[in-house]
Amino acid sequence: MADITIIGAGNMGGAIAGLAAAGGSSVQVLARSLEAASAVAGSLEGASAGTVGDAIAGEIVVLALPYPAVAEVLGAYADQLDGKVVVDITNPLDFSTFDSLVVAPDASAAAEIAAAVPGARVLKAFNTNFAGTLATGSVGEAQPTTVLIAGDDTAAKEALAAIVTAGGLRAVDAGSLRRAREAEALGFLQLTLAAQEKTSWGAGFALI
Amino acid sequence: MADITIIGAGNMGGAIAGLAAAGGSSVQVLARSLEAASAVAGSLEGASAGTVGDAIAGEIVVLALPYPAVAEVLGAYADQLDGKVVVDITNPLDFSTFDSLVVAPDASAAAEIAAAVPGARVLKAFNTNFAGTLATGSVGEAQPTTVLIAGDDTAAKEALAAIVTAGGLRAVDAGSLRRAREAEALGFLQLTLAAQEKTSWGAGFALI
Predict the structure, then answer these.
(1) What is the CA radius of gyration of chain B?
(2) Do A186 and B189 touch (CB under 8 A)?
(3) Membrane-crossing residues (chains A, B) (predicted)?
(4) Averaged pLDDT score across all residues of chain B
């Protein structure tokens, strides 16, 4: 068993794995490529690496994937996610236009995921944090990084918050899973501001 | 003539009037009650007070009103708003539930206002700033207040930004008026966090 499974070994997956390991959690990192997963897990105490398709070892499963890659991974793991805490970190932007989200206006990526795996306890988290702010613990030079966590299952939110705070960051309960819509709007706005250099990729919005 | 007309003499109207006056703008404050307008204008250099229905003197018109009050004021002034810069500051929450906005999911209050007064140059601004952060110039103790300005008319955005920066705050171009939707989501999320004491009414999200 592991405390947390991170599916995805990109910048966000690596930062979340590092945060969890820093707090003393045992971490399983799964990626399409074992090499990529090993590159993340190899530098962390108590972390293991594997490929997508391996059995999920963690009670908390972070989908550290771009939005278009989520459906396939959910399909591969649907039967293993009942009762698990599943964490959606996506910002479902239309990157061809940078002018809208690809989910329906009254929906959210998190709501779609919750509908796809109804037995899972789905949370929205980390989508308003740039990877650099998770790694350094600060937004810009001096403001503590806050991880907003939205979801309908209080115990699930507390479990993720415990990992975040053990890793040295602040966790804030952002309300029900319906607030994922606003969190995705915030993530979207923040990405457009960074892309236009109105903020930096190591900064963004800090909750004061 | 005045540089800017503020319609509404509540906390936000007072803070925006104070900001504009601090930057040297001439300010007209209009409210339902002359007493309320005078209470704001009386303490500001170069400010005049009047009631809703008086002729608009400013080139920039800030609707410092709660969302439900906007339609009536637009109706009263529709013929005077052609060519004006009209600034929407609303957060159109359903305050009975605190769980959704009252505008359509694919719309925004700003888009509705732009449709209602097609001759005006509509901007979304100030809705992500608590009044206290406009008055003090800081989010919490130390982070400079940033006013996000979204709109389709670059010159209009620049005119409002000039007033904001003259008053000592930072102004950031947040993109087209389509970004009002995300700004309203951010304002909504921020209000729910303050109502739950996850942040304070003198703080919120700071753009770092």
Answers:
(1) 16
(2) yes
(3) none
(4) 97
Residue of B nearest to A140 (CA): B208
Whole-number pLDDT of residue B1: 64
Encoding tokens for residue B177?
A: 């008026």
Phi–psi pair at B4, nearest 5 degrees: -150, 135
Cβ distance B190 to B52 under 8 Å?
no
Distance linking the first and last C-alpha atoms of chain B: 36
Local confidence band at A2 (pLDDT 50, 70, 90 cut-offs): confident
The whole-angstrom separation of Cα B156 and Cα B122 is: 8
The amino acid at residue A47 is: A
Question: Shortest Cα distance from B110 to chain A (angstroms)?
Answer: 16
CB contact under 8 A, A186 and B183: no
A28 DSSP β-pair partners: A5, A48
Q: What is the ipTM of this complex?
A: 0.94
| Domains of chain B: residue spans and CATH | 2-195 (3.40.50.720)
Interchain CB contact of B54 with A (< 8 Å): no
